[in-house]
């Protein structure tokens, strides 16, 4: 057990209310505050910023991301130290 993570969804539980970096199919990256998720890894994020070439391309408010479009999710606090 590392940082209280025993199962994969524990990472998402620990990230609720915090910023996460999400890589999507089609080579898209977004950063937003994780509000909710389900067992299919469908996500509800707020204050989303689409990132392209380490710059904010577009901003969105409350957004639903479908789980089958997600490649990976990372806590933004660790993933964005050098990127954004």
Describe the structure.
With 84 residues, the protein is mainly beta. Strands 1, 2, 3, 4, 5 and 6 form a six-stranded antiparallel β-sheet that branches. It has helices at 8-15, 76-79, and strands at residues 19-24, 28-37, 43-52, 55-60, 63-65, 70-75. It is 14% helix and 49% strand. It has one domain: Roll (SH3 type barrels), CATH 2.30.30. It is built from two helices and six strands.
Topology:
Blueprint: H1 8-15, E1 19-24, E2 28-37, E3 43-52, E4 55-60, E5 63-65, E6 70-75, H2 76-79
Antiparallel strand pairs: 1-2, 1-6, 2-3, 3-4, 3-5
Strand content: over 45%
The CATH topology: SH3 type barrels
Secondary structural class: mainly beta
Number of helices: 2
What is the domain total for the residues? 1
Our measurement of the CA-to-CA distance between the termini, rounded to an integer number of angstroms, reads 29 Å
Which value, in Å, is the CA radius of gyration? 12 Å
What would the principal axes of the Cα set say about the shape?
A: globular
Helix content: 10-25%
Averaged pLDDT, please? 89
Largest pleated sheet: 6 strands, antiparallel
- CATH top level assignment: Mainly Beta
- The string of secondary-structure elements, in order, is HEEEEEEH
- Assembly annotation: single chain
């Amino acid at each position: 057990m590392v940082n209280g993570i025993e199962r994969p969804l524990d990472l998402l539980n620990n990230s609720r209310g915090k910023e996460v970096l999400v890589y999507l199919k089609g080579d898209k990256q977004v950063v937003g505050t994780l509000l909710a998720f389900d067992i299919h890894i469908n996500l509800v994020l707020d204050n989303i910023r689409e990132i392209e070439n380490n710059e904010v391309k577009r901003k969105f408010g409350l957004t639903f991301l479908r789980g089958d479009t997600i490649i990976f999710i990372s806590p933004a606090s660790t993933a964005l130290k050098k990127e954004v």
